[in-house]
Amino acid sequence: MIEVKNLTKSYGSHLAVDHLNFTIDKGRIYGFLGPNGAGKSTTMNIMTGYLGATEGEVLIDGHDILKEPEEAKKSIGYLPEIPPLYMEMTVEEYLDFAAELKKLKKEERRKQVDQVIELVKLEDVRHRLIRNLSKGYRQRVGLAQAVLGYPEVIILDEPTVGLDPQQIIEIRQLIRDLAKEHTIILSSHILAEVSEVCDYIMIISKGKLVASDTTENLEALMGGAGSLELLIKAPKEQTSVILSKVGHIQRADYADGEETGTTKVVLEVENDADIREELFFAFAEEKCPILSMQRTKTTLEDVFLELTQQNKEEDANHESDL
To answer: Is the per-residue pLDDT at 281 higher than 70?
Structure first.
């Protein structure tokens, strides 16, 4: 559907996008993650034809976005972080105008405008001026123009920024609904949002793609072995001796518990082995109570921080070698 090949964008000496390569397939919701200044918006602006690239190419359904922009853009709907709205127009007037710009056939415009108004739930405000709408409704209007023409791919740059919790829930549901018929690329710095809505994640840092996989696979990759967190009513030395008799433990990290005379320990376990019963009986035999025991799970936030930090350290080491 979309192929990004060796994509590079420089602003003077600053390399905003650094030789990116990835493919977008049909039928998925892609999360595009990265810290501020990572190059997410620049990449999306190039993919949608708003910016030119220094090197590389972007193919949309086989059409180069820079060489065949009109053909390529037919397959893409785009909602920038700040929607390009005309405040003195009504919702309906704006969408009619957007449909004309997209060169929809006259006989189809009215039908499509009515359909997208219904789809994104704008019926109650279709005759109101855009400047009188709340931010949530303005975001819906921007989303409606992106959907006009029913492009195969819809690219959303920070679609929930500045919205209240109820509006965020509504926009997320709209994205899920759109994903039934379209491929979605969603850029966000809200990790919980990406984790909840997207089924495939791409993480970019300093203009480079540092990870590309499903949420589950990324969490499993970074999590490695399963982990258990225990609070033991025993000193660290005694806890360590008891754990040395338990199998499948790869690593144990110790810390003083908040309560006097307790030890907190985090265990990395081989191949997600379930050692809870073995732990219970090992400590019970030594009359050392386990006050709490819980599994710990690597989150997308952990993965994001780990990968972006690794990228920063690699860049710092490279600079020091120069």
So the answer is: yes
* CA quadruple 121, 124, 129, 133: dihedral, nearest 10: -60
Q: Does pLDDT of 87 surpass 80?
A: yes
Give the per-residue pLDDT at 116.
Answer: 93
Higher per-residue confidence, 240 vs 172: 240
Is-above-0.85 flag for pTM? Answer: no
Report d(CA 19, CA 9) in Å as an integer: 8
Residue with tokens 């899920």: 176
Q: How confident is the model at residue 296 (pLDDT cuts 50, 70, 90)?
A: confident
* Residue 111 and residue 80 share a domain: yes
d(CA 53, CA 42): 9
Which residues face 187 on adjacent strands?
Answer: 32, 157
Domain harbouring 277, CATH code: 3.30.70.260
* Domain shared by 284 and 196, yes or no: no
d(CA 299, CA 172): 20
Query: Which sign does the torsion angle of CA 311, 315, 320, 321 carry?
Result: positive
What distance in Å separates the CA atoms of residue 110 and residue 127, rounded to the nearest whole number? 14
pLDDT reported for residue 319: 46
List strands edge to edge, sheet with 249-256: 249-256, 263-269, 226-232, 290-296
What separation in angstroms does the CA of 229 have from each of 23, 28, 161, 261?
A: 39, 35, 35, 17
Residues 172 and 96 in one domain: yes
Tell me which amino acid residue 74 is.
Answer: K
